[in-house]
C-alpha cells in the first residue's frame, strides 16, 4: 500500500507541474498582469511602472519567470499580498479550514441525500419514486446555488423572523458578541451547507442511479439471484460495492464543481473562507493572493484525485498495490 | 440466361419507409419526448420574450424615484426595483445578454472541442494522447477561479466573457467527438474515400464530421445550460457584465441588498435562469434520445 501510494504521488507531480505551467503562462500572456493594481493607480507614472517591471523581473522570458516562481513556491513562499502586505501563505492558512468545514459537511450531506434516493431510483426503475427522483435531480441541476441561497435567506432568516419562528443565521460563522461554541457554528452551517449540498446531491443522485442500474444488469447479479440468494443480500453483498466504484471516480472528477460551489456559497453567506478571500482579492487586483489560491486549489484537486485512487484500490481488490 | 429471383416480401413494405430521412426520424423521436417538447416551447418563449422586450411600455434603464420597490401588480407584474425600474422589462432585456452569451460561448466551445476531438480521434497515437492529457488537465481545473481571475484582470466586456467561458468549457465536446471519430474512422466509407485519394482533412471534415453531428448537437444543448449558469454566476459575483446593463446574474446581485424590503427582486431573475437551464436540459435529454443510436 505504501509503495502504491508513493508511486501515485510521484505520478501526480508532472500533472501538477503541467497545470501550474499552463496557468502561469496563460496569466502572463494576459494583457493585464501582476502590476494591474499599480496600472490602475493614476499617481503611478510610466517610469515608475517600468522600474517595477524591472524590479519584479517581469521583462524576463516566461520560462525564466516560471522557474523563479516555482522555486519560491516550492520553498512554501507564496509571496506577499500587494494590498495588506501580509504573507499570502498565512492569509490562506487562516481561511482554508473554514472552506474545508463547509465543503466536507456539504459533501457528506450531499452523499447522505443522493445515495438513498439514487438507490431506490435504480431498484424501482420507472416507478413513481424513480420519476420523482429524476424530477428532483433535473430541478436540482437547474437551480443556480446563488438563487437557492437568496431564497433560503429570505425564507429561513428574514421571513421566519417576521413570523416569530426560530430564524437561522444567514451570514458569517459565529454570532458576534456570543461566545460562539459548536452549536452556534452548527446553526451557521445549516443554510450554506444545505444550499451547496442540494446542488451537488442532484448530480450525485444521477451517478448513483446510473451506476447501480449498470451493475444490476451484470451476469454475476443474475447468477446470485438464480442461486436463490435473497434480493436484500444480492443488493448489499454483490451490487452496492461494485456500484460504488464509478461513483467514487465521478464524484472526485466533480470536486472542482464543489470548489466553485463553495466560492459562490461563501459569497452569499459571508462565510470567511478561501473563496471569499479570492473574490475580495479579485476586486482589489491583489495578484499575489489570486495566484496563490489558484495554485493551492489545483493542488487540492489533484490530491483529492489521489485520495480517490486510494479509495478505489481499497474498494476493488482486483487492483494490486504495486 | 437470366435467373428470375423471387420477389422478397420485404420489398413490398419499402414505400412506407422510403423518403423518411435521418432528420425526419430524429424529429419523430424527439416529439415523443413530451418534456423535451415542453422544454423547446419554454425556451422559444424565453428567446421571444428577450427579442420582443423592446416593445415594453417601460424603459429598462429609466429610473423613477417615486415608484421604488413597488410590489408586483397589474401595472408591474414583477414589481419595480430599487430605482423604480420595471422588473419585468429588465428581466426580459436581461435575457438578451444572458442567452446571447450562453449561445455564443457554447459555439466557441463546440468549435474548439470539435477541433481537438476530431484531431485526437482521427490521428490517434501520440497526438491523441497529448490532446487527451491536455483535455484532462482542463477538466481537473477549478474553472470558476480562472474565470474570476481573468474577468478581474482583463475586464468584463461581453466578448471577453464569451471567449473565456467558451475556452473553459470545450472538454466534454472534445471527448464525445473523439469517441465518435475513433469509431467512425473504421467504417467502410472512410476506407473508400481514402482509396479514392481523399485528403486527411477532407476525410475528417467532409466524410466523418457530418456523421458525428448527433453527439455534438447533444453536447452543445447541454453546454448552453452550463454556459448560462456560468455567465450568471460571474455576473452575480460582480465580475460579469456590469450594471446598468441588466443580466439575470447582476440583477440577483443587486437584489441581495433589498431582501427584506423587496424579496420579489430576488425571485424573478432567478426563476428565468432556472427555466432556461431546465428547458435546455430537457431539450438535451430529448435530443440524446433522438440522435444517440446507442440509446434507441
Name the descriptors:
heterodimer, A: 322 residues, mainly alpha, MetI-like fold, 13 helices, 0% strand, B: 296 residues, elongated
How is this structure best summarized?
The complex is a heterodimer of chains A (322) and B (296). In chain A, helix 1 (2-29) packs antiparallel against helix 13 (287-315). Chain A is globular, with a radius of gyration of 24 Å.
In terms of topology, how is this protein built?
The complex is a heterodimer of chains A (322) and B (296).
Chain A lengths: L1 H28 L6 H4 L6 H10 L6 H13 L13 H36 L4 H15 L2 H18 L19 H35 L2 H8 L4 H23 L1 H14 L5 H10 L3 H29 L7
Helix pairs in contact in A: 1-13, 5-6, 5-8, 5-11, 5-13, 6-8, 7-8, 7-11, 8-10, 8-11, 9-10, 10-13, 11-12, 12-13
Chain B lengths: L9 H8 L4 H11 L1 H19 L34 H37 L1 H16 L2 H12 L3 H10 L3 H14 L3 H8 L4 H9 L4 H24 L11 H8 L12 H24 L5
Helix pairs in contact in B: 2-13, 3-4, 3-13, 4-5, 4-7, 4-8, 4-11, 6-7, 8-11, 9-10, 11-12, 11-13, 12-13
Descriptive account of the structure:
The complex is a heterodimer of chains A (322) and B (296). The mean pLDDT of chain A is 84. The longest helix of chain A is centred in the N-terminal third of the chain and has 36 residues, at 88-123. Chain A has 13 helices and no strands. In chain A, 75% of the residues lie in helices and 0% in strands. Chain B has one domain: MetI-like (MetI-like fold). Chain B is built from 13 helices and no strands. The longest helix of chain B has 37 residues, at 87-123. The radius of gyration of chain B is 24 Å and the shape is elongated. The model of chain B is unreliable at 10-15 (pLDDT under 50). Chains A and B meet through α1, α6, α7, α11 and α12 of A and α5, α6, α11, α12 and α13 of B.
